[in-house]
Specification:
Largest sheet: 3 strands, antiparallel
Strand order of the largest sheet: 3-2-5
Strand content: 15-25%
Helix content: 10-25%
Order of helices and strands: HEHHEEEE
Number of helices: 3
Shape: globular
Mean pLDDT: 94
Number of strands: 5
Length: about 90
């Protein structure tokens, strides 16, 4: 998690999730953010999609450019949530 979101997860930089097999990214995020609904709402919108100003990468690949919350995550995958940087 980026520093700006860690306070919403009791300061955790990482949220380990155990998977039994291939799982959709949206389900992984639900499992990871379950104890912290406010964190979940900062990363995903009311439709469950990744927010515009948040980037989520699965094994280094931008999930928004793949299948969004349907992107496949394997038990060995690494998921990074990063705040998008904008401005000039």
């Amino acid at each position: 998690l980026p520093g700006l979101l860690r306070d919403l997860a009791d300061g955790a930089a990482e949220l380990p999730v155990e998977l039994g097999g291939e799982t959709a990214l949206g389900d992984v995020l639900d499992l990871a953010f379950g104890p912290w609904p406010i964190l979940a709402s900062r990363v995903r919108d009311e439709r469950g999609q990744i927010r515009r100003h948040v980037n989520v990468f699965v094994d280094g690949e931008d999930a928004k450019r793949a299948d969004g919350v349907q992107t496949t995550v394997t038990p060995s995958s690494t998921v990074h949530v990063i705040n998008a940087v904008s401005g000039g």
